[in-house]
Design goal:
Blueprint: H1 2-25, H2 32-55, H3 66-83, H4 89-110, H5 117-134, H6 141-160, H7 167-189, H8 196-224, H9 226-232, H10 235-248, H11 254-271
Helix pairs in contact: 1-4, 1-8, 1-10, 2-3, 2-7, 2-8, 3-6, 3-7, 4-5, 4-6, 4-10, 4-11, 5-11
Amino acid sequence: MRLFLLTSLTMLAFAANSVLNRWAVGPGHIGAVEFAMLRLAAGAVTLAALVLWQRGGLAWAGGRDRVAGVAGLAAYLLGFSLAYRGLDAGTGALVLFGTVQVTMFAGALVSREVVPPRRWAGAGLALVGLALIAAPGATALGPLLLMACAGVGWGVYSLAGRGAVDPLAATAWNFLLSVPLVLPLGLLAGVAAPDGMGALLAVMSGAVTSGLGYALWYAILPRLGAARAAVAQLTVPVIAALGGAVLLAEMPGLRFWLAAVLVLGGVALASLPYRGFTSRSIR
């Protein structure tokens, strides 16, 4: 029960990132780049403080994949915030989630992993769902492409971190090293002062739902296992859609729910472990 509650809390945190970003950027409380900058800074401070509190020091968690991790995180943060200028919370989360899974699938092919037919079928279903969202008349193409870039960034970030010996310290360093990359880009793009609500939502997203949410995720991930972790994340787009409906009055249409069935069903098909049907499975 404790593991279930902690997993539910983590999925709420992941979905809340979409709702908080849309809530802040959509109505103009804060600019998209400014939101990403504040979110990153708040997350970096929170994660560094957490590591210092737990271990008394922030030892270097380097590795050959650090550059890819930092670049992927920066692309995710910027693309995520910019996309929510034109996407509702649920659609953004679904496009992000689907693109991440497709990116992870492509990474498996590049690294020459053995890919079973069921995973090919699952990736195909997810792509069909993403195509349904991107069909003419569904929504603006620009925000969809930006969210797809964010999904690729998070997928690269996840692939880079698969072999991390100390995931929490690695995450803290990824956030810290992304600050000098994202902040200059934001300053070059031009920044404007947010209102109080926009600043509060950005800091909440960075410190709580990103920083603490990611730390909690890494803490429970070994107990969940890869299959259950993947299935748990299937709830994130649905939670984000419901949160957007309740807090932002963004009611998802039929196209969203059809695409959600395809994307989430495809991910479930590719992620769930297969167990052959034998006489032992009959009780």
